[in-house]
Amino acid sequence: MTDNKDELDRIEGGAPLDAPRIVRGQGVTAPLGFRAAGLAAGIKKSGKQDLALVFNEGPEYAAAGVFTRNQVKAAPVLWSKQVLTTGRLRAVILNSGGANACTGPGGFQDAHQTAEAVAETLSNWGTETGAVEVAVCSTGLIGDRLPMDKVLNGVTEIVHEMGGGLSGGTDAAHAIMTTDTVPKQVALHHPQGWNVGGMGKGAGMMAPSLATMLVVLTTDAVASAGQLDTALRNAAGKTFDRLDIDGSTSTNDTVLLLSSGASGIPVDQADLDAAVYAVCDDLAAQMQADAEGVTKRVVITVTGAVTEDDAVTVARAVARDSLVKTAMFGSDPNWGRVLAAVGISPVTVNPDIISVSFNGQAVCRNGYGAEGARDVDLSGTDIDVIVDLGLGDATGWVRTTDLSHAYVEENSAYSS
Amino acid sequence: MTDNKDELDRIEGGAPLDAPRIVRGQGVTAPLGFRAAGLAAGIKKSGKQDLALVFNEGPEYAAAGVFTRNQVKAAPVLWSKQVLTTGRLRAVILNSGGANACTGPGGFQDAHQTAEAVAETLSNWGTETGAVEVAVCSTGLIGDRLPMDKVLNGVTEIVHEMGGGLSGGTDAAHAIMTTDTVPKQVALHHPQGWNVGGMGKGAGMMAPSLATMLVVLTTDAVASAGQLDTALRNAAGKTFDRLDIDGSTSTNDTVLLLSSGASGIPVDQADLDAAVYAVCDDLAAQMQADAEGVTKRVVITVTGAVTEDDAVTVARAVARDSLVKTAMFGSDPNWGRVLAAVGISPVTVNPDIISVSFNGQAVCRNGYGAEGARDVDLSGTDIDVIVDLGLGDATGWVRTTDLSHAYVEENSAYSS
């Protein structure tokens, strides 16, 4: 179901007719040439939806992906990295209810067998497909084998259930949820006549929560695998890679971008970069807002760094600091904890020229307290922290959340 | 007051007469030649004790120190590092109720003025002392200037209150507490006739909680500043530096070791190393047991590493992982989170040969789940995690705690 109110708000908000339009509530089936489905295959004990399929009808099949940097990689990550070396995908099968990580050679065989089953069913359905054209993504508890009988029955069923239109995409977005409380979808309609859509679950990538981040992006623009790869790496580096909920990095994080070329419209790299970035940025914001136990949305921006990498490194050190995050939960303008976190980051700083503001109000100037610093009101949901290192011209940011009782509650009772 | 029961238990426990005896409840005044005091100077709004003095009566005054690695260093750290370049100290003045960190040039003048006041009062009291012989330590909220009128009045009073015997040391141990719930003291009596005593507060060093760690150690052995420095660096590196409560590092962490030489007994480096290590190890265990919000005492041991540094690095990555720590709080044997934390550490590992045990029971063998892994009972207070990387012969460990509701509660309402 489209979230029509949100869509109308955005349209009525009055973007110029020649600007790209962002629409929440539409997802991977917004671009032409994609079908999707989601259903309950019985992998989750709760009986909720747990299997999703995204299918590229073509006429083109270019694809790109980025994966977790964790050295411990789940079986589906190993499988999908391997098949993506061809730069080509026809389908992505995703399950929640089990990560298929740390499951040994048997787990890898399960991922392979799942891809084979998708390929065989699609072929029987009339679309000749090989297993090497099928990416596999999983999310859930680490360490258990998947119930393959249920997965394989689900695969047969889901291929037949694939609908066109938006509802299939929304079903898929629901089926990949674990601790997410809402599905996450967004689409971008470009005035040139091509589109990008995406769905995601979880809260992170590379630096983020163990609540695996899975994202599938689709476009009907005509674009090569190389173009997709460039656009995806640029966008992921500035969005998902800068979303840091608790510093933990999943064994399963995966972001895929598939192109059907169905619009028939070739796309400039710059236009594609901007569109993919916009979709990823919106999905990252949706993940931040729905992170485990979140009560505050916090953006840490570091200015005055020598390089952008330095700025992001310092911002990440602040974003990961448990004492900063608990202070945010308490709406406490405890800026000294921000300085302490900056000071232990691997970037060389000069404490005597650091300035900090909370929600636009100075709390620290040149290394010591600004007047009224203890009275800054942080009771709202959004907190902007700006740290000026005073060393150079580079800027970087990281999105994070507070560390709340709900986070502890949710994560102390996950597997049991 | 001496904790006589504890002392008697240990003595009756029957250490051989020629082995060093460890006695809890005795502290910095256990060695000959040291006096100490603690009192309420009015720095803390609560009216609790907040000022402590440790005084070396000589005849020798050798000293060594290790300090926070945070680039943002509190004024008293800057002062004490400077005076310790002489390798000589007559006194240490410590306050709780304010960190005197991020307080600018005025804050440094406050630390200097405090040392001057201690020196002047000691000189008037009959012991000629210079400010460069006085170290200063502070702990409390970052960012506010100290109430210097109260500090200076307190300094005059505390010099006159210095008593001999154990009670002065215990008063001092009380006066440096912030979020500590119990004072932390220990003494070692060496059969050769010399002694080491120590007191500490907080929960960490270099890698540890922002709840500043302050430790003062004393000995009446005859030892040079160089000997003290060697013993202190060796001990701190294996004890306080391996205590990691939340990965945050205070601006104020300080560990000092003072020798009076009052026993008249010269000491071998190896004996001194062992004694200082034993005292530091006991204080570190006391800090772990009293860490903010602790409900579990967790030791992460990494074996089979190529180097000891690698082992400690991996152990620290696991010890800092919020998802591992919340699982421990929930008594949940979620070993997959341990593997994910190992996999994102900067040490290169081979996931397929990693094995993990919880409290001696195998939960993961060669990268995947051992039978019964989900049923391991972690309901007790102590949890031993052993991670075998299978790469080499080196071992390292880190002490940590769980991440509990109480931690969030305590740290979300500290400055306000």
From TrEMBL, chains A, B:
Pfam families: ArgJ. It is an enzyme of class 2 (transferase). Substrate binds at residues 178, 201, 212, 292, 411, 416. GO terms for biological process: L-arginine biosynthetic process; ornithine biosynthetic process. The record marks 139-140 as: Involved in the stabilization of negative charge on the oxyanion by the formation of the oxyanion hole. It catalyses: L-glutamate + acetyl-CoA = N-acetyl-L-glutamate + CoA + H(+); N(2)-acetyl-L-ornithine + L-glutamate = N-acetyl-L-glutamate + L-ornithine. The active site is at 212 (nucleophile). One of its GO terms (cellular component) is cytoplasm. Heterotetramer of two alpha and two beta chains. Catalyzes two activities which are involved in the cyclic version of arginine biosynthesis: the synthesis of N-acetylglutamate from glutamate and acetyl-CoA as the acetyl donor, and of ornithine by transacetylation between N(2)-acetylornithine and glutamate. PANTHER family: ARGININE BIOSYNTHESIS BIFUNCTIONAL PROTEIN ARGJ, ARGININE BIOSYNTHESIS BIFUNCTIONAL PROTEIN ARGJ, MITOCHONDRIAL. Belongs to the ArgJ family. This is Arginine biosynthesis bifunctional protein ArgJ. It comes from Gordonia amarae NBRC 15530. The lineage of its organism: Bacteria, Bacillati, Actinomycetota, Actinomycetes, Mycobacteriales.
